[in-house]
Amino acid sequence: MAVTSSAPPAIILMIGDGMGLSQMSAAMYTSPSPLAIEEFPVIGFHKSHSSSDLITDSAAGATAFACGEKTYNGAIGLNADTIPCLSIMEEAMVRGMATGIVATSTIVHATPASFLAHQKMRIFYEQIAEDICQSGVDIMIGGGKRYFDRRKMDDRDLLAELQSRGYRIGDYFNGELTQVKPDPKLKFAFLTADNQPLPVNQGRSYLTYASRLSADFLNIRGAEEGFILMIEGSQIDWANHANEGKLAIQETLDFDRAVGEILKFARQRGNTLVIVTADHESGGMALQSGSKRGKIKTEFTTNGHTGSMVPVYAFGPGAEAFSGIYENTAIYQKMRDFLHWGPEKIGLENLKPLENQFLPKK
Asked: What's the predicted TM-score (pTM) here?
C-alpha cells in the first residue's frame, strides 16, 4: 500500500485497558528490543476521573473518549444525567465514514460498547449486543457470541439478523480469524469466543492480525470519507486485577505488537492519526527493587483501579495536539478537531430515549 497524502482522514484509537506507566515500563524492560510505543513523537497525560468518582471504571472512561462527556461509573454512552450522548463513531457513520471495533474481551464489554451503545449499566450485555447490531458498524471482532445467538432476554438470533442486513458472519467455532478473508463489499463480524477470549498466555493470538485486517478493510470501505477504528487490548486490566505481574507484561507486549502493526499501516497510508492510551491504570503496579532487564519484579497496591494520570501517545497529523495534561474528555475533542468537524454534532436526532432501567445505587 503506497503512501497517499491525499487519503481521507483516518483515526485509529488504541486503548490498553488498565495500562499505566508502570505496565508500559515493565513491558519495555522485559522486551529484548524497543517497543513500538517508543516510536511515538508526542506524549501527553489525561486525567481519568469520572463524574461520580475520582477512580473511574472502563465504562465511564471509554464514554469520555467516545462522547466527550464525563459520566458515572458503569454508564455506557450516556452523560451523567443518563441521557444518551452521540459518540464520535456514531457521528462518523452519519458523515459517511467507515467504522470498526476490535477487542480481546467480549465485544459487548464496557470499552467497545461505549462507542456504539447506550445503556445505564455496563452489565446489560444483551441490550448492548442489540445496540451494537443496530449501530451499523462496518467491522467488529471480539468475543461474546452467547450474547448474540443464545440470549436470555429474548429468543432473537442477532447474528442471523446481522447476516440479513448484509454482514458476513464468522466465529471461532468455524476456524481461526486468519482463515477468513472478508469481502469489503460486505460488513464483517467475527466472534472470537463464546464468552471472554482466552488470555494471551493460554493461546490467544489474534489482536495484531485483527488490528491490521480491520485497518485494511476500513481503508477500502472508507476510501472516500475515511474511517475511525477503536482497538482495545482488554486483558491488561484483568491481569492487573488479579495482581499477576507476569501476565500483565505479556498482555502489554501483545498490545504493543498490535501498535507496531498499526504504525506500519499509518506510515504507509498517510493522513492517519494514531492515538494510544488507557481508560485508567489498574492494580497500582510498581517495579520493585531487584528488578533487572528481562526479569522484572512487580508488586501491586490494589486489585482495583487507581486514579493515576494516564499517558497518551500520538502519531501522525494532528498528533501535536495531544501533548500536555488534560481531561480524558479532551481526547474526543482533539479527534473532532483533526477531522475538522465544527461544534454542531450531526446525528443527534438519531438517538433514542432509554427504557426505564434501574440504576446502580450511589
From this structure: 0.96
